[in-house]
Amino acid sequence: MSAPKRVKVCFVKDCFSNSDATPDKIFITVPLRPNLRRIWFEAARQPYASRSSKYCCEDHFDVTEDIENYMRYKLVGGKVLLKNNVVPHLFKHQLFTGKHIVSPFVTQNNFRCTSSVTPCVVLWSLLVVVL
Fold first, then answer.
1. Rounded distance, CA 25 to CA 37, Å?
2. What is the pTM of this model?
3. What is the pLDDT of residues 79-120, one digit of tens each?
């Protein structure tokens, strides 16, 4: 008998995605390298956790643009490879602006910002006004 499969839960606050409820959703492992891991936590506005296994669901990425091997992954499976400098950047539950919110941390630190969302500079100024 095989061991039960571990349920992956998205580490982003107020995102309730998990691999049990949505088995077809992509869950990307949060990097373990401390500097990169800290960047992911800051982008998601989460308190830093140094060691535990964390996952981020596909809802926080533009998967067709952010995943290097997206078409191959969809066709034959395998490991998901993110493009360089991609961090979670879509957070529709944190601040509504019509489609998605782009984390101000991402835009202020030259990380990837997709063109399918409201321009990052506008979102940054909106967030400053709201806070």
1. 22
2. 0.69
3. 999 998 899 999 875 554 444 444 555 555 545 544 343 333
Cβ-proximal residues to 49 (8 Å cutoff; 6+ apart), any chain: 41
User: Cα separation of 50 and 54, whole Å?
Assistant: 10
Residue 67, strand partner residues: 82
55-57 and 27-29 beta bridge pairing: antiparallel
Strands (E), the chain: 27-29, 55-57
Compute and round to an integer the Cα radius of gyration of the chain: 15
Give the angle subtended at the CA of 101 by the CAs of 98 and 103, to the nearest 5°.
165
- Token pair in block for residue 56: 């981020």
Question: Measuring CA to CA, which residue among 72, 77, 80, 75 is closest to residue 29?
Answer: 80
Could you state, in order of their start, the residue ranges of all structural domains in the chain?
27-130
| Residue in the block written with tokens 């969809």 | 74
